[in-house]
Amino acid sequence: MMHKILIIDDDPAVRGAFSLILEDAGYEVHEAENGLQGIEMVKQNRPDLIFLDLRMPGIDGVETLRRLKLIDDSLNIYVVTAFANEYMDQLKIAHDEGLRFQIASKPLSSTQIKQIVSSVIAEPEKKHHKLILTLYVVSLNEEFKQFIDRLSAVLKVTYQPEEWKLEVIEVLYVPEKALANDVFATPMLVRELPEPVLRVLGDLSKMPSIIAAITSQHDAGSDTIVM
User: Taking a C-beta distance cutoff of 8 angstroms, is the pair 75, 42 a contact?
Assistant: First the structure.
């Protein structure tokens, strides 16, 4: 069965770019130009994943998020925005209310978009990974290579070989981190990651040339943070 993805964004260029990338990857993609239209589309046909913009005419992305979660609290919603700082207080309130969502900063490359989708809509052969860690790095310098060696060593002693996956992707630049000093990490994800892994991943915050997508698979589904 083909997975359904809904793009809610008022910018037709953004919707077109996401659709082109995702349809080429084999997904069924639907587009909504505002929050109200997106809500009606979800009522008619539940998507497996929603990419949601924040700054839109009419109701903004945060209010759209609330109304979508009232329809179905289990919806997978990924907020993708260039205005995270502007909406920071509203996002924190929504998070404190118990609304579960993920967030990433625009612009996203085609590789990043597909990585997000594969982390949320895991293919059967990927279900067994307890941890999928993707690092986007500007420069594969010696400091980064040493960090990768240390991270790999910790993962090898913490997980079985088939339980983890580490990907390193070189990019031209790293967009502003989604929430600056704040990362939305669900308690479930924090609890599931062993202390040695958390300790090494904490060093990522000291390396501004890296953005990481960390996905933890568990019985209830999966959780992803972008930092």
Answer: yes
Q: Give the C-alpha separation, 148 to 142, whole Å.
A: 10
H or E element in which residue 4 lies? strand 4-8
Residue ranges covered by each domain of the chain: 1-121, 124-227
- CATH 3.40.30 describes domain 124-227: yes
The predicted-structure confidence for 150-166, as pLDDT tens digits, reads as follows 888 888 888 887 778 88
Taken as a whole, the chain contains a residue count of 227
Strands, DSSP E only, in 46-120? 49-52, 77-81, 102-105
On whether the pTM is more than 0.70, the answer is no
Q: How far is CA 121 from CA 54, 125, 170, in A?
A: 22, 12, 24
φ, ψ of residue 181 in degrees (nearest 5): -85, -5
